[in-house]
Structures are given as structure tokens and as C-alpha cells.
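Hey,

The postdoc asked me to send both predictions to you directly instead of through the lab channel. I've kept everything plain text so nothing gets mangled by the mail client. Protein one:
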Amino acid sequence: MIATDLVIPYQVERAGLRGRLLRFGPLLDRILDRHRYPPPVSALLGETLVLTALLGSTLKYLGAFTLQAHGDGPVRIVVGDMTATGELRAYAQFDAEAVAAMEGATAPMPALLGQGHLAFTADQGADAERYQGMVALAGPTLTDCVRHYFRQSEQIDAAIKVAVRAPNGGAGWRAGAIIIQRLPGEGRRPGGADRAEPDEDEENWREAVALMASVKEDELTNPRLAPDRLLYRLFHQPGVRMFKPRGLADGCRCSRDRVAGTLGALPKAEVLEMVEAGVVSVKCEFCGAAYEFDEPALEALFA
């Protein structure tokens, strides 16, 4: 069986460029099926999850990487979240009636999210400063927003391709993505020892991007096409080195203790206003887990 739900780091040898190849199968289907959002919202959240895993796997952090899009359209927010150990979760908030009114029409990202911003947050643990970046929602897809962010804010050349496929013919949600990056000062001659001349560096970059652009969406999402075979097909001419794959998993960090801590940090009067039928009910937006606190439990929070 071909492995899926993973990220494979790779390097284009002749150019010294780095990248990641991602393949989603049952993991994506499980997360999206849990929410049962309308198809346009599920597809948007699927793209968010793909970008979260693709970008989160390139960073070194101890806590969590979060990708959030906020807009003034029918979809108010989409969130993807990934821990340093590769556990993913996601959710969306939207106006169900407004989304239903779009049924049957194309629903690109601008129509769903409207105007707003895309935020990147890396929580690097208690002993490190949190990193956050932001870019306006501009372009037809969230992937275009990420490209713009790298180009304008990070001064990094990055080529990204993302494909998300809805359930069809008994198959569940599937997705795939590939990214290649050129960091400032990167680029090597064949043999790997010396920096390439600027013209050669640019030629190597353009060649690698052209090769990556040749990948078809069906190839990115095809569960019968092994990821290592796909990378070899794309980059066998300049040479490609693949590194150890990183597995991805479905996981949520919510717990009764975390919810209790959140409630306990609020003013007591505000929490008591939330009481219905003798309990305060809190549902996790990510995984759907429900937590209930009766009056004795609430009193214990504020004791």
C-alpha cells in the first residue's frame, strides 16, 4: 500500500533548492467529514489544512503553527492548526444561508471570504517569542495569498501548487501539494561546493519552477502514484534527493482542564450568564467534543 498523509522534504540537487511534497488521504477526509460543512466551505478548509501542513512542516517550533483567514464574506473565518509532532485540526465559521445562496455557482476564495487577511502564527513554546505574519486576502485562492506573503514579507522566492479533490465515486476527500523555495543566498553549482553565479542561479531556479509547474492536479492527489516516484519524474534531470517522510495525524488539544481554565479566567458573572438548564455547555469548534459544567463544578472553578 502506498503511504499517504505525509510530507516528504526534498532537495533539487543541481540548484540546491529545497521543497516539500504533501499527500493527504484518509486524514483529510476524516477531518472534513467530521464537520460536514457545505462543499464550498469544505474545499476552502481543505486548502487551509494543506497549506497549514505544508508551511508548518518547514518551520522549527515546539508549540503549534496556525494559519487563519478572516474575512467579511459568507465565510468569516477558516483555521488550520498543526502541532510540532504533526497533529492537525481545523474548523470554519460561516453564514449558512449566505453560503447556501451560492450553491450551483462557482465559489472562489474572494466570493467566500470577501476582504480580510491571512495570518500565520508559530507558537515556539514558553521560552521563545511567538512569530506572526500577515497578508491581505488578494488573489483567487489562499495559495496565491501565501505566494504573495513570501514574496513581499519574507523576501523568499516560493512556488506552490495545491490540489484538493472532493469525494467522487466512493472515494473521500483527497489533496496534494508541492512547494519549492529559494532562500536568500541559496543556489549551488553542480557538485555542490560553490555558490552559483547570479545568472546560473536564476536559470536553475526557473528550470526547477518550470519542472514543478508541469505536475498535474491528478498526479498530486492520485493515491496510486507514490510520492517518491512523482518527485523523481519531476526532478530526475537536475537530480533530486528525498529525505525522511514526516507522518501527519488527526489530533485535537482540547480537554476538560483546558476548557475549565478558560472559563475560570472569565468574570464569574459572565460565566453564570451562560448557564442553561443548570449547566454551561462548551463545544470544541475543532473536534466537536462537548464539555458540561454544572453549578457545583462552576463554583469549584471560582472557589
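Protein two:
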Amino acid sequence: MERKLGDPKIRYQILESTNEFVLGSLKERKFNEGTIVIAGFQTHGEGMGENRWESEKDKNLLLSLVLKPVFLEPAHQFYLNKFASLAVYDFVKHVLPDKNVTVKWPNDVYIDDKKVAGILINNTIIGKHFEYVVLGIGLNINQKTFKSDAPNPVSLIHHTNKELNLEECLQSLLHYLNSRYEQLKVEKSQSLDGDYLNVLYRYQNWSEFKTENRTFKGRITGITEYGQLQIEEESGKTQEYDFKTVEFSG
């Protein structure tokens, strides 16, 4: 019988980082696909690059999911970002159906202009296949106050005005992760591409962008099959950007 994502669940009160725990354990143990590691608190929660993920103890969802997507070529690994961010989007939109929820490239989930969730993906590749994919998700649920210098965090409680049950949130999130993962398996890129663009933050809206050496006005017109951001400038020229080489300037 095919194993569902979220089975089994391994729980810890405190970890340095759920992703680092899984990655550090791979030499000593094998994880079945679908295994999920959950922490009540992370002492060294990771974000993209040098960023850190702030989370108050037992207030949010902090988890890492083990995947073995043998059906997906490593060259097309950006589809992991798409399926995961869309699953988190689905969950947030289910909780807040009347709010403006979007996915900010490559995989942050936003409510209006504030970040409610972040995703970090680590993988190991053997030959032309993934051996393991470790999908880390930090999702702000019940935290009211943030003390770090992160520019724009927000939690669901800021919009629901009441605490949510974390276990119920976890089960709902796993439902959407399973659904989107099945979509990735069965349909590959056909529908995920459209779904991702439909909820992409500031898609087709003229905005100010900045790179290392200039600021310019442009609009996002698409994503390449390798996950690069396509931005059309006012001159009509379209450029492709890798992650961390361009950002919104305002």
C-alpha cells in the first residue's frame, strides 16, 4: 500500500533544526518516504541562505518531510518548490478564504505583503535520481509577537483573532501536501505551472526591482522550467534571474 505523507510522525520538543536533524541522521538510519519530523521549538531554525526562522515555542508548525520523488528528474527540481508552496497556500487559503494569499517566488507564502510561511528544500542526488528530498516548512500559526529583525512576519492568529489547534492544522496541511504531491506525480508540470502562476505574488504587476548593480521597473511574466524568474522591463526586454540575484525594491 502506498504510504501517505505524514506517516510516520517523529516528534521532538526541541531540535536545532528539523531539516538538519533529518540530514544528519541519513548516515545512521533510513527514512521511509512520507516520514515527518516535527519540533515544538528550534534553536537554530533555518531559512534561505543565512536567514534564520524565528518561532516561539509550541506556537507554530515546524516540520520536515522526507520525500523520494524518483519520478522527477533532478534538473526539474523546481517543481518541488511549486508543489510544496501551493500546498501551504491551499492550507492558508482554507483558513483565511477572504484574504489575499499568494506565493512569493520561489516558495514563500504571503498574506497581503507579509510572510506567513517559508520553505527550505535540501536534497541528495545519486546519478540522475533523487535519493532523498528533505522539505522543511515553517508556518506561523499562533505567534503574536516577533522579536527578530525579519522585515515582515505575520501569523494566522493576526487574522483569525483566536488560537488555532496545531494538531488540526498539521492534519489539514498534510491533506494539502498529499493532494499536491499526487498532482505532481500524475500530471507533472501541466497543471502545476498554471496553478503556481495564478497565485504568484505581484505576477504581471509593474513593480520596482533591484539587482546587485541597478534598480529598474518591470513585471514578472513567467518562470522557466528550471525555476528562473522572467521579468519584462519597460523597454520590452525580458531577462531571466536566478534566486538571490533579484528582489523587489519596495
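Summary for protein two, as requested: The longest strand covers residues 114-126.

Thanks,
C.
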